[in-house]
Structures are given as structure tokens and as C-alpha cells.
């Protein structure tokens, strides 16, 4: 049964593979109006399918009683691959499978100002903890002040800064949660992530 959430007049629900074209279309639309294209590393449709195939989740926001996607957010599981940035901020090797990425969030201009990024951060953290997540991280461009404020509001702390995604400057924010170990084994993922831009 699908879980549905509500926030500031928007319906929030988990998205599936059949909504990937809508996700990608919204991303391209919003990114096309950013003041600088280095602020967000755009993804191809295949990326969103991989997130879902590798235990990740994507949530979308819709205006009440409408089917038009207005915002989305990605919770990704990097598994124990070499792409898991947890190693760089001190996660022990045996806990790498419990690292989750607060990955990209896109919000259409018409629904901004409703606190969606903060709500999405809270939702993704709760979902990660429910799935046994112990560490969260996100990457963000140093000039993306709104996203940095939202990560800091979610109690993530700056861990390091370095070029990523083909040489683009990025900060990595992270935190440890208070999740308990799940009653089921987490699948090792081969997913190669791209984080919140």
C-alpha cells in the first residue's frame, strides 16, 4: 500500500519507474533557469532507475488533486562501493552499508517558499533510519546557499570540500543518526551515486 504524506497543500508520495520521465522533465525544466549550470549536476533518466533498483527511494510532490509533479527528492544507497563518500568522513568499513545519501532535490519555482527542502530532508532521514541507515551525507555546490542552510538545519555538518562530478566544486555535509540495525540484511549495492548538487 502506497504511503501518502501532505505538506503545505502538496501531496507527497513515493515515485516508481513509470514516473522517471516526469522526474527527468522537471529536473531539466528547473535546471534550465538556474543562474549558473555548475550549481546542479543534472542526471540522465537511467540514473533515477538505478537509484530505485539499488534500494533507494524517490519522493514527489504534487499539487492537491493534480497529477503534475512539482518537486522531487532522492534518497540513494551507495552500498559498500568505492563511491561511498563515508570513507572520507570516517565511517568504519563495517558500517559503510548503513550510509545513505540525501541526494538531489528539485523544486519548481511555483511551489518554492513552502519549506519543501527541509520537509524532504526530514522525510529522507526518517526513511533512511527505518531502512537501517546510520549515516547521512549530501554534496552541494559552495554557492548553493539555500541548500547549505537546509542541510545545516537538518544538523548535517561540513566534512570536507573537493572537486566532484567532472571537476565541479562541492562541499560534503554529513551526520550520524540514531538508527538501530535493521532486522534484515542490507543488500550490497553496486550503485555509483551523484549527490545533492
UniProtKB/TrEMBL annotation:
Read off the InterPro entries from this record: Acyl_CoA_acyltransferase, GNAT_dom
Molecular functions (GO terms): acyltransferase activity, transferring groups other than amino-acyl groups
- Protein name (database record): N-acetyltransferase domain-containing protein
Q: Domain N-acetyltransferase: where?
A: 10-179
Amino acid at each position: 500500500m502506497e504511503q501518502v504524506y501532505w505538506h503545505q497543500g502538496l501531496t507527497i508520495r513515493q515515485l516508481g519507474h513509470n514516473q522517471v520521465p516526469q522526474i527527468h522533465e522537471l529536473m531539466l525544466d528547473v535546471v534550465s533557469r538556474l543562474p549558473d549550470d555548475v550549481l546542479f549536476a543534472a542526471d540522465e533518466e537511467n540514473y533515477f532507475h538505478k537509484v530505485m533498483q539499488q534500494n533507494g527511494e524517490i519522493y514527489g510532490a504534487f499539487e492537491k488533486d493534480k497529477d503534475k509533479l512539482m518537486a522531487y527528492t532522492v534518497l540513494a544507497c551507495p552500498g559498500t562501493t568505492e563511491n561511498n563518500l563515508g570513507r572520507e568522513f570516517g565511517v568504519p568499513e563495517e558500517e559503510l552499508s548503513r550510509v545513505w545519501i540525501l541526494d538531489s532535490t528539485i523544486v519548481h519555482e511555483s511551489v518554492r517558499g513552502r519549506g519543501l527542502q527541509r520537509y524532504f530532508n526530514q522525510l529522507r532521514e526518517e526513511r533512511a533510519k527505518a531502512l537501517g541507515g546510520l549515516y547521512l551525507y549530501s554534496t552541494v555546490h559552495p554557492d548553493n546557499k539555500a541548500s547549505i542552510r537546509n542541510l545545516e538545519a537538518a544538523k548535517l555538518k561540513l566534512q570536507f570540500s573537493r572537486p566532484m562530478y567532472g571537476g565541479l566544486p562541492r562541499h560534503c555535509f554529513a551526520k550520524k543518526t540514531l538508527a538501530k540495525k535493521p532486522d534484515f540484511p542490507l543488500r550490497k549495492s553496486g550503485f555509483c551515486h551523484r549527490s545533492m548538487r
